[in-house]
Amino acid sequence: MTDKKLSIPVLLGTPRKNRESGNVANWICGKMRGRDDIETQLFDVCDFELPHDNYGTEIGGDFPEWRDAIIRADGLVIVTPEYNHGYPGSLKSVLDLLLKEYIHKAVAFVGVSAGPWGGTRVIESMVPMVRELGLAVTFSDLNFPSVGSKFDDEGNLLDEAYNKRITGFLDELVWMATTLRWGRDNLSSKYHQ
Question: Which domains, from first to last, does the chain contain?
Answer without folding.
Answer: 6-191 (3.40.50.360)
